[in-house]
Amino acid sequence: MKKDIQPSNYRPVAFKDLSNGDVFVSRSTVDTKDTIEIDGETYPLVKLEISSTSHPFYTGKSKLVDTAGMVDKFNSRYGNRSK
What we know:
By secondary structure, this protein is an alpha+beta fold. The protein has helices at residues 56-59, 67-78, and strands at 11-17, 23-28, 35-38, 41-48.
């Protein structure tokens, strides 16, 4: 590994999902003024609106949109306009 290739502020950072309260720690260079204490350690805190623990695609709670039906409806309504 090359020396001095990583930024100097590469450190553990806590990310908090505001929609469900889950917190996970990862390494990052993000700048933040907020902090949080986890297991006696103080970490910089980044607040997220959505993460993989609350995103509908990853939780399996997503609604499927019937795009084929929408295309057929559009074609039946506007398909004959080119004549």
